[in-house]
C-alpha cells in the first residue's frame, strides 16, 4: 500500500512526512514494546503503536522504519514531531485502536512480519 | 577514524543520540545499509542499557577498512550475573524504562545477534565495558 492509501484507510492525519505519501510499504508491525520492535522487525514496515515517546522515533531511525502510525488518538509532542522530521520519517495519527487499525490494514493486503513465537524464541 | 561520545545518565528522552549521530556518520561514509543497520541496533541497545542501568557513560567508536568497533564504558553498578543477564526475558530495568517501551530483557540477546563479536566485562561496583564489532568484508 502507498503511505497515502494507508492514511486514507485509517482516516488518519499527517504530523509530518506528507511528501512521502506516494512511497509503498508492504509490511506492518503493531507493537507498544520497543524492545520487541528492535528484536523482530526485519522488513520495511509501517510501525503501528500507541506508545508516544521520543524513543519510538529513535527506534524507527535505527531500523530504517519509514513510517509510524500512532493509534488510539494519542498526540505526539512537538519534540517528537521534530525528531521524525529530522529523520525523514512519516508520522501519522489515527483514532482507531491498535487492533482495529491493524485489522483494516491486513484486510487491505498489508502483510505481517513472518514471525511465529514459541517459548524458546528470543 | 575515531569518535567519542558522552552519554548522559537519567536523560531518557535523549537516549540514542550517540547511536543516531554515529549512524549518520556511517551513512556518509557509504557503508552498506545492512551493516549500518546491524551496528546501529547493537549500539542503540547498549546505549539504552547504559542510561537505564548505569547513569550514562562514554562511547568510543573506531572505523577501519576491516571493521567497525564500538566500546561502551560506564561506571555503573556492574552486572552481578552475566549469564543470567544474557538470558532472554531477564531484566532488572526500572518502571520508567519499561514505560518508554524497553526493559523486556532482550537487549543483550539482540545485541549479540546483530554483531559479529560481543564482549562484555563487568566488575560489581565499578562498571561495565561492552565491546561490539561488526566486520565490513564478510557476510553476517
Task: Explain what you see.
Chain A has 122 residues and is α/β, with parallel strands linked by helices. Chain A has a single domain, classed as Udp-n-acetylmuramoylalanyl-d-glutamate--2,6- Diaminopimelate Ligase, Chain: A, domain 1 (3-Layer(aba) Sandwich). Chain A is built from five helices and six strands; from the N terminus they run αββαβαβαβαβ. Chain A has a six-stranded mixed sheet. The radius of gyration of chain A is 13 Å and the shape is globular. The termini of chain A are far apart. The model of chain A has no long low-confidence stretch (mean pLDDT 93). Chain B contains five helices and five strands; from the N terminus they run βααββαααββ. A five-stranded antiparallel sheet of chain B has the order 1-2-3-5-4, covered by helices on one side. In chain B, a hairpin with a 3-residue loop joins strand 2 (56-63) and strand 3. The longest helix of chain B is centred in the N-terminal third of the chain and has 22 residues, at 33-54. Chain B is globular. The interface between A and B is medium-sized, with 23 and 28 residues.
Please give the most extensive interface between any two protein chains, plus how many residues each contributes: A-B, 23 and 28 residues
Q: Based on the structure, what is the oligomeric state of the protein chains?
A: heterodimer
The run of helices and strands of chain A is HEEHEHEHEHE
The domain tally of chain A reads 1
- Averaging pLDDT over every residue of chain A, what do you get? 93
Low-pLDDT sequence parts of chain B: none
Q: Could you say what the CATH topology of chain B is called?
A: Heat Shock Protein 90
Structural class of chain B: alpha+beta
Quantity of strands of chain A, as a count: 6
DSSP helical segment count of chain A: 5
Strand order of the largest sheet of chain A: 1-5-4-3-2-6
Domain DRTGG (chain A): 6-103
InterPro entries (chain A): DRTGG, Ser_kin/Pase_Hpr-like_N_sf
Pfam families (chain A): DRTGG (PF07085)
Protein name (chain A): DRTGG domain-containing protein
Amino acid at each position: 500500500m502507498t503511505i497515502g492509501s494507508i492514511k486514507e484507510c485509517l482516516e488518519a492525519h499527517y504530523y509530518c512526512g506528507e511528501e512521502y505519501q506516494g512511497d509503498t510499504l508492504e509490511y506492518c508491525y503493531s507493537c507498544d514494546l520497543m524492545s520487541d520492535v528492535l528484536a523482530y522487525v526485519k522488513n520495511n514496515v509501517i510501525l503501528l503503536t500507541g506508545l508516544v515517546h521520543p524513543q519510538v522515533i529513535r527506534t524507527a531511525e535505527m531500523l530504517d522504519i519509514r513510517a509510524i502510525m500512532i493509534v488510539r488518538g494519542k498526540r505526539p509532542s512537538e519534540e517528537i514531531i521534530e525528531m521524525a522530521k529530522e529523520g525523514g520519517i512519516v508520522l501519522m495519527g489515527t483514532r482507531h485502536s491498535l487492533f482495529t487499525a491493524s485489522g483494516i490494514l491486513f484486510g487491505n493486503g498489508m502483510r505481517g512480519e513472518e514471525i511465529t513465537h514459541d517459548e524458546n524464541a528470543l | 577514524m575515531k569518535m567519542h561520545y558522552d552519554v548522559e545518565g537519567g536523560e531518557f528522552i535523549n537516549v540514542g543520540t550517540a547511536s543516531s549521530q554515529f549512524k549518520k556518520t556511517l551513512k556518509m561514509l557509504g557503508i552498506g545499509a545492512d551493516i549500518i543497520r546491524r551496528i546501529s541496533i547493537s549500539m542503540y541497545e547498549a546505549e539504552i542499557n547504559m542510561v537505564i542501568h548505569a547513569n550514562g557513560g562514554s562511547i568510543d567508536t573506531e572505523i577501519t577498512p576491516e571493521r567497525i568497533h564500538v566500546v561502551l564504558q560506564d561506571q555503573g553498578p556492574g552486572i552481578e550475573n552475566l549469564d543470567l543477564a544474557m538470558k532472554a526475558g531477564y531484566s532488572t530495568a526500572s518502571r520508567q524504562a519499561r514505560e518508554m517501551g524497553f526493559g523486556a530483557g532482550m537487549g543483550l540477546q539482540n545485541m549479540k545477534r546483530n554483531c559479529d563479536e560481543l564482549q562484555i566485562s563487568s566488575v560489581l561496583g565499578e562498571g561495565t565495558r561492552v565491546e561490539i564489532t561488526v566486520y565490513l568484508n564478510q557476510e553476517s
